[in-house]
Amino acid sequence: MKQAYIEAFRLLERVHRQFLEVIKAELDRVGVQDINNVQALILFNIADDELTVGELTNRGYYLGSNVSYNVRKMVENGYLEQQRSTHDRRSIRVKLSAKGLKLSEDMAAFFDKHAKALKDSPITENDLKVTSDAMRKMERFWGNIISYSPF
Length: 151
Description:
Blueprint: H1 2-29, H2 37-46, E1 51-52, H3 53-59, H4 67-76, E2 80-84, E3 92-96, H5 98-118, H6 125-148
Antiparallel strand pairs: 1-3, 2-3
Helix pairs in contact: 1-2, 2-4, 2-5
């Protein structure tokens, strides 16, 4: 069990890194150079929402990423708009600008293209569902360890 566990989390990390490389390649193909792959993924996950940086951090999984830094860079490059919360002046809310919405739509098109390409691969929809189920179970398992671990 231990070896399977170690292999699973190592593979999970490698697959995530590979996914970020796929996003980088797609950005390169369309000539987007003022945003990196992690920032593009954050932007895609914001979509139509308006969030605080804290909510964004809790919602996403941005490997080795400083979300506050990335948000600041996306604001500087015109992908995000920010405003202070009317209820809590310490809190800043962000949403996609027109430029950010365009890139989010481009990202959705990338993912549509990838999903269509999957049909010609040995990966089935059931494979993806089984994998997702296993990852959700791992997420709950690790969450329980964090919440209830005596060490």
